[in-house]
Design a protein that fits this description.
- By secondary structure, the protein is an alpha/beta fold.
- The chain is built from four helices and ten strands, in the order H-E-E-E-H-E-H-E-E-E-E-H-E-E.
- Strand 8, helix 4 and strand 9 form a beta-alpha-beta unit.
Amino acid sequence: LQIIRMYCYKIYTVNVHFFKEEGKLFFPEVRGLHIHNLNAFDYLVKYFVDKYKLSKLFLLAPDTGVWVYVQKTARRFGFKADHLEKRRLSPKDVYVQDKPLDVRGSDVVILDDIIGRGSTTEKTRRIVRKYQEGTERIFAACMHGEFAKGWEEFEPGFDEVISTDTIISDK
């Protein structure tokens, strides 16, 4: 950061979960460098609300890393929210802990910081489906969409998957 400070005084990041919060952040050891960590989940949720005219929406974080952001977005919109616990087993495999979710009668948006291979998102979708009555929709949205296995991997289980353009992908 000291080297970055030599060339700029502000950095803007988008939903970087190692900060654990949104807003203006400071590093005391790097004087004069201001980091603004933006929460773009509001925009992704607004997209679904506007497009599908949603009024009963449940926001779900698949892990604790994005839970702070999801909670703030849920509060701003007045929606219910919850999170699951995830443990990475290997670079390609994750374990997502099942728990009862009060999603009956609600459309659900799974919000994550990044979708790489999609295994966390897919396992989270399966948990949600267990607790829905079956007629509700499941959406997924992320800040950083890598989609290493391509978009078509999500087509059968999700009503729509969206991402910001922080990562350019040909998938």
